[in-house]
Design brief:
Distance between the termini: 30 Å
Number of domains: 1
Shape: globular
Helix content: 55-70%
CATH superfamily: dinb family like domain
Number of strands: 3
Largest sheet: 3 strands, mixed
Length: 173
């Protein structure tokens, strides 16, 4: 049986491929666009997707994230070159931290809070998995934003409606 660190690294690597493809198609001229006043801008959403692999390192090096402390500051990104560089930096740092981690560290508790309001207390392994789920969730949101902007969407777990299914199948064969 594969140990949990190897399983997490495998998942991280697999999701990075899809995330990289999605971030690469964000058009520079649409970073300020948002589909609704309550929605994030493309810039904020894409930057959040790009930062999430770095949460692995943060989780492994801390015992909590308290939004009320003001230590969490989203990065502002205005172009796809910087977005991809930010993603690769966070991916490398998160992956390195996970490679260096021990199973015992993954069992320690980690808290997500906003001052006195506690959102969750879970093991670090569970929080890392939640971070991966957040990548998938927000990447899908970004796909909807891009679809509304008529940007062709890359496939995630198979071809997208924008990719020729028959060409993709022939390339695999």
């Amino acid at each position: 049986m594969m140990d949990i660190i190897k399983m997490l690294l495998k998942e991280m690597d697999q999701e990075a491929v899809t995330t990289r493809k999605m971030l690469a198609v964000v058009p520079n001229e649409k970073y300020d666009w948002q589909p609704h006043p309550k929605s994030m801008t493309v810039s904020r959403l894409a930057a959040h997707v790009a930062e999430l692999p770095g949460w692995v390192k943060m989780v492994l090096e801390t015992s909590e994230l308290d939004f009320a402390s003001g230590k969490y500051q989203p990065v502002e990104i205005t172009n796809t070159t910087d977005l991809l560089a930010y993603f690769e930096k966070n991916l490398a740092e998160g992956r390195a931290a996970l490679e260096a981690a021990t199973e015992a560290e993954l069992e320690k508790l980690w808290t997500l809070r906003n001052g006195d309001q506690v959102y969750s207390v879970d093991t670090k392994a569970e929080v890392i998995r939640m971070s991966f789920c957040q990548i998938v969730h927000h990447r899908a949101q970004l796909g909807v934003f891009l679809r509304l902007l008529n940007v062709p969407i890359p496939g995630s777990y198979g071809p997208s409606a924008d990719e020729n299914v028959f060409e993709t199948a022939a390339a695999v064969a």
